[in-house]
Amino acid sequence: MNTLNSNKPVNERCPGMSYQDIVKSDFKRAPDGSVPAVLRPVIDKTLPTTDIPFERYVSQAWFDLEMEQVWARTWQMACRLEHLQQLGDYFVYDVGYWSIVIVKTETGIRGYYNSCLHRGTKLKPSNSSGFTGNQIQCPYHAWTWSLTGELMNVPCAWEFEHLDYGANRLPEVRVDTWAGFVFINLNPDAMPLMAYLEVIPEHFSHWWPFDDWYVVSHVEKELSCNWKTAQEAFMEAYHTPFVHPELTKVVGDWNMQHDIYGPHTSRDLCAMAVTSPSRPHAISQEEMLENRLAGGPQTKAKGVIPPGQSARSVIAARMRKDTLRKYGKDLSYLSDAECIDSLKYNLFPNLFIYGGPGLPQLHRVRPVGNDPHHCIMEFIRLMPKPRGEPGPEPAPVIRLREDQSFATVEGVDAFSSRVLDQDTNNLRWQHEGMRTSRKKHESLSSYQESRIRHFHMTLERYMSADAGP
Ligand code: FES
Ligand SMILES: [Fe+2]
Prior knowledge:
Layout: H1 19-24, E1 52-53, H2 55-58, H3 60-69, E2 76-80, E3 89-95, E4 98-105, E5 108-113, E6 129-131, E7 135-137, E8 144-146, E9 151-153, E10 172-178, E11 181-185, H4 193-196, H5 200-204, E12 213-223, H6 227-232, H7 240-243, E13 257-260, E14 265-270, H8 285-290, H9 311-327, H10 336-340, E15 342-347, E16 351-355, E17 361-368, E18 371-384, E19 397-400, H11 414-425, H12 427-435, E20 441-442, H13 450-464
Parallel strand pairs: 12-19
Antiparallel strand pairs: 1-20, 2-11, 3-4, 3-6, 4-5, 5-10, 7-8, 8-9, 10-11, 12-18, 13-14, 14-15, 15-16, 16-17, 17-18
The chain binds FE2/S2 (inorganic) cluster (FES) and fe (ii) ion.
The site of FE2/S2 (inorganic) cluster (FES) has 9 residues, from loops.
């Protein structure tokens, strides 16, 4: 274990342009010419740099405690409101061995433990969604509840004269919504969702709200690693030059900005259409434009860069124009950075949600069953609903095994599938390496991996406390 550098202050500065420098030199900034306030850095210099034990990733005892201390006490995004459009629509959210049926009822959206009160059978299969009519019926002996959870019918009722129907209502979990996302929490005493989300609602109010968007693609992949191993691959860009060398032409990786807020939220801001500080020479603005990432994956942007502007400003201007034409949405109030950069927020314990219109997507990671060595990672893309039309159905989930490439999924472009394959291909080997480790700890960097350290501090608080932070 590394004992040299515990509690040293964070040094955030990668040599060269910082994210703030990039935004300050953008063509379109805040109306007063400064960096928009919502993009300013928030660094926690008090985070300890203590090593993290691998036991947290590989031990069954730690996993079992997480199921009770973390997954049963935190707000988790379960589905979108468009999964629950009409009365009787349901959606099953599974996390580890917990399974919750979320239902649209006469009295709003409710969430029930997915377990029959007769002999425990799941009321709806895991990973299922659909329409349950005006009742919820167990598939085994047909005990039946109303949508609002009252026990309505027990076959052979003469055998159950001892049964208190009132006491056999379906037990509920907390449900709340924000920006079209449905969240659940198994803890009846949990803090309100809006408080739990910390800065997210206020920050996202600066951008195009997701209320009127829908799920246009939803891919999940089984991975042979702990859920935290998978998640942490998306909390730093330290690995980018080595795992995704092609990205260094068009992404600011080592100079990404990492911000830390309350216990539940942190974010990274990653500049698009810039050269990585890991490359010895910056590529030209014209070449950058050709290699654009934002505003349409793999589309080549032909165009002239006007004097005093950059590839970033041309890409942002094109995005504003396209958005106005396609969706009638005027994004002229947004800076170039807010239009095209990756503004990725992490919500404890398992959600990444991207702000701004540049990369409207989510990642979510969930443990599977009772197994610290497997998880599911999901990649969900959102699009604005078409103008003047009823909301389209959310895209069905496409499920990939560990050995399947994202390139097999229709609608995932070649560039994105390659990056996602590169990220997920490492994870089995990292997890197996943790299990065979002699050192038994990881030593994280002070700034680029600070969000992983922040995540572990919150994890420790939940694991040791009776109530959440
Ligand atoms: S287990 Fe559900 S009705 Fe018997
Ligand atoms: Fe990556």
